[in-house]
Design brief:
Layout lengths: L1 E3 L5 E4 L22 E3 L23 E3 L5 E6 L4 E6 L5 E8 L4 E6 L5 E5 L9 E6 L5 E7 L5 E9 L1
Parallel strand pairs: 4-6
Antiparallel strand pairs: 1-2, 1-3, 5-12, 6-11, 7-10, 7-12, 8-9, 8-11
Length: 160
């Protein structure tokens, strides 16, 4: 499945992120915006019945993560944890997780436009995103467990 904005720019795609071999795309959307979705079989030989549906959830709580600090918690399977980072200076922002839990990170700008995602660029199975940032802008990070992993995590941010 592929998701497009109103100008038909590809904004996200997924193959098996849902149950079994089903696709699942989660987007941060604003009221009144239009999105298009393209659904197809994995390859040209895939055919069969399908069902596609959409649901909406309110924004979850967002925890401020200040550069030079860290937060700890426990990831539950299927839940997302939101963090905002607002750098005090221009530079390179690094947000990463540490611990034994396999983590995923996504980052969005202040307009909730998707910027990047990572699974295992950190140590072991930890996520790490390195991003050029501007002073005073807010960046949103979504932390989740990869696949069926759950457990403790630590997330930190620094600007260089």
């Amino acid at each position: 499945m592929e998701a497009y904005d109103a100008r038909r720019n590809l904004i996200k795609e997924d193959d098996d992120g849902g149950d079994g071999y089903n696709a699942k795309i989660e987007l941060i959307v604003s009221s009144g915006t239009v999105h298009f979705f393209k659904l197809r079989g994995y390859d040209e030989d895939e055919r069969g019945m399908f069902r596609i549906f959409a649901s909406h959830s309110p924004m979850p709580p967002i925890t401020e993560l200040r550069p030079g600090s860290s937060q700890s918690g426990n990831i539950e399977i299927g839940k997302s944890y939101w963090f905002s980072v607002r750098p005090a200076s221009n530079g390179v922002l690094t947000v990463e997780t540490t611990g034994d839990t396999d983590t995923m990170l996504e980052v969005y700008n202040e307009n909730f436009v998707f910027l990047d995602e990572d699974d295992d660029s950190g140590t072991d199975l930890n996520a790490k995103i390195v991003l050029n940032v501007r002073q005073g802008r807010t960046y949103y990070f979504i932390l989740s467990a990869y696949d069926t992993d759950s457990g403790p995590y630590r997330i930190s941010a620094r600007v260089e």
